[in-house]
Amino acid sequence: MIFKFSFIFVFFLSFNHVFAQRLEAPRSMGAIGDSITAGTLALFEIKKKRTWPEYRQYRNMIRQYFRNKLDIHSFSYAGLSWSTGYGMSPEDIYEKQKLPLSSKLNQEAFFEFNDENFPVKSLYYHLKKNNMKRDIQFKNVAVPGDDTHGMLTEQLVDLNKWSQEQLGQAYPDLVTFLGGANDLCKRSYDKMTSAREYRRQVYVTLESILKKSPKSRVLVMPLMRIDSLTKNLKSEKIFKMKKDRDILTCKNMWKITQYCPTITRSKNLVEELRLGARIEQYNLALKWVVLSLRAHYSDRIRLVRNAENQTIKAEDISIDCFHPNVNGQNRLAQAAWKSSWWHK
User: Fold this and answer.
1) Are 272 and 227 in contact (CB under 8 A)?
2) Which of 57, 155, 173, 243 is a plausible cystine mate for 141, CB 3.0–4.6 Å?
3) Looking at the domain assignment, is residue 343 inside a domain?
4) Residue 81 maps to which CATH number?
C-alpha cells in the first residue's frame, strides 16, 4: 500500500515537472504584499564602520523615517522587489546612496535588461531571462504597513482595476502573495491578528483571484522566521566609528524607535515563544489555504517551498534592522523562482 502511494506521488511530481516545461510563460504579473514586497529600504545595508558624515546622515534619516516625518513610500524601491523587481542601474544606486540622502526615485524607470541592472534577480527577472521575446506587463500594489485585511480590502481591488484596464481580464497571469508581518507587528500580543482571521482573509483574497480569473496562477510566499531577528541581530552593530564611539546596535535602534514591539521588544522567553507560535500558526494557515484551493483549482496555486524555516541574518537586513536588503530580497526571489511553474 505504501509502495502504491509512493508510486502515485512520484508520478504526480513527474507530471507536474513535464507540465511546467510546456506551460507558457506569463504575459502579466501582479504582486500583493507589504513593505517587503514593496522593496522598502532594500537599497541600504548594515555596515560595521562608517565615516562621521555617513553616520550623521543615516542617523538623521532613520530618526525622521521612524517619526513619520518621511513618507515610507519614498524609500520603497520597487525595482528591488523579490517579485516584480524590474531593476535599478548602478548609476541610480550610486545617486540614491550619495550624501545627503535622496528619497526621490523615478519608479517608472526601466533599464536595459542585463545582470548589472538587476542587483535583485527577481521572479520577473527570471521569467524575462527565460523568454526575452516575451513582454511582461506588471503591477506591484504592495503597500508598506498593510496587514492581510488591507491586502483583501484595498490591494486586491487596486490590482483588479489595473488588470481590467490594462489586460482586459480580472487579474494578471501570475500573482505573488506575501503577507503577515504586519499582522504580527502590533503594539501588544493581544492585538496580533488571530490565526483564524489571518487564514480567512488570505483564503478570500486568493480564492477571488483564482475564481474570477481562470488564466491566473498564484504563488504564495510563507513567512520567514521573523522571530530570529531578535536572536541573531540584537547585538549587531549598525554604526561603529573608528574610535569606537557612538556605537548603535539593533537593540538600541528598536528601543529608540519603538518599532514593532511584538517582534523586536519581547521581554521574556514566554513572549518569544508566543511570537514563534503565531508565526508557525500563520504558516500552517497558508498551507491549509493552498491545499484547500488546490482541491478546486488544481496546480494553479503553489506555496513556495523551504522558505518558512529560513532564519534572518545580518547580511540580509537593511539599516533599520528589519527590512530585507538586496541580499535578503534575492533569497526570497530565488526561493520563489525554484517553486514556480517555469523553473526547470
Assistant:
1) yes
2) 155
3) no
4) 3.40.50.1110
280 versus 72: the higher-pLDDT residue is: 280
Beta carbons of 25 and 127 less than 8 angstroms apart? yes
Q: Is residue 12 predicted with pLDDT exceeding 50?
A: no
Cis, bond preceding 100 (omega within 30 deg of 0):
yes
The number of domains in the chain is: 1
On whether residue 344 sits in a domain, the answer given is no
**Residue 165 domain-assigned (yes or no):** yes
**Which string of DSSP letters, residue by residue, matches 223-242?**
PPBTTHHHHHHTT-EEE--T
Residue 180 lies in a domain: yes
Residue with more model confidence, 170 or 248: 170
Q: In sequence order, which residues have a C-beta less than 8 Å from that of residue 236 and are 6 or more positions away? A: 46, 249, 250, 314, 321
121 touches 330 (CB < 8 A): yes
Q: 3-state class of 38 per DSSP?
A: helix
- HSE-up (13 A, CA, CB side) for residue 186: 13
pLDDT at 150: 97
Range name among 45-49, 71-75, 170-174 with the lowest pLDDT average:
71-75
Q: Do strands 237-239 and 248-249 pair parallel, antiparallel, or not at all (unpaired)? A: antiparallel
Residue 287, phi then psi, degrees to nearest 5: -65, -40
Grid coordinates of 217: 496562477
Which residue reads 483571484 in cell numbers? 209
